[in-house]
Amino acid sequence: RMLGSIVPSSRFLVRRLLAQIDWSRARVIVEYGPGVGVVTGQILRNMRPDAVLIVIETNPEFVAFLRSAIVDERLKVVEGSADNVVEILRDFGYTGADYIVSGIPFSTMAPDVRERTLRDTNIALAPGGVFVVFQFSTRVLRDLRRTFRDVRRRFEFLNVLPAHLFICRAAQPYRVEPHRG
C-alpha cells in the first residue's frame, strides 16, 4: 500500500512526466514519494543550478538511502508525509513550489488523507505552479478535478504498469508564509 509500484518507473514514464516542467522557471520543486530516486535523479539532472528539490518520503530506509546515494546540495530529503508540504516548504523558507511531482498511490490512501494531501498541494503551489502526478488508475481524477483549477490528462503505455498522468494547475493563487523562526 505504501509503494505506488514494485517496479521502478520506466524511462518513458519519467520522460513524459518531466516533460511537463518548464526548467527555466522551476526554482522550487517538490517530489512526493521518491522511493529509491529514479525520478529524483532525472529531476536533478534537468534542474537549474540555483533551484532546489525537496523530496518528501515516509519510509526511513528510503530516506537513508537517498541521503547516502545522492550527493547534491540542491537536494533536501525530508522524512515526512506529503500532507505536511505547506509546513515543510515554510520550514525551508520557501513561499511556494513551482512544481510538485508525485507518484504516491492516492487511490490506496484513506479518503481524509487523500483530500488533505491534495488540498495542501494546491495551497503549496506558487502562482502558476503545477502538480504533475502519475497513477495506475483514474480513481483520483474526480478528487483532482474538485481540488485544482485545470486538470489535463496524458497516458504512458511504455511502463509496467501503464500509467495515467495528470497535470494540475492550482485553483487559486495561494502563498505559503515564510518561516519566521
DSSP helix fraction: 25-40%
N to C succession of SSEs: HEHEHEHEHEHEE
Show unreliable segments. 1-7
The main sheet orders its strands as: 3-2-1-4-5-7-6
User: Mean pLDDT score, rounded?
Assistant: 85
Biggest sheet features:
7 strands, mixed
Tally of extended strands?
7
* Helix and strand composition category: alpha/beta
What's the overall geometry? globular
Topology:
Elements: H1 11-18, E1 28-32, H2 38-46, E2 52-57, H3 60-69, E3 75-79, H4 85-91, E4 97-102, H5 111-124, E5 125-135, H6 141-147, E6 150-156, E7 163-169
Please provide a written account of the structure.
Helices cover 30% and strands 26% of the residues. It has helices at residues 11-18, 38-46, 60-69, 85-91, 111-124, 141-147, and strands at residues 28-32, 52-57, 75-79, 97-102, 125-135, 150-156, 163-169. Strands 3-2-1-4-5-7-6 form a 7-stranded mixed β-sheet, sandwiched between helices. It is of the alpha/beta class. 38% of the residues are buried.
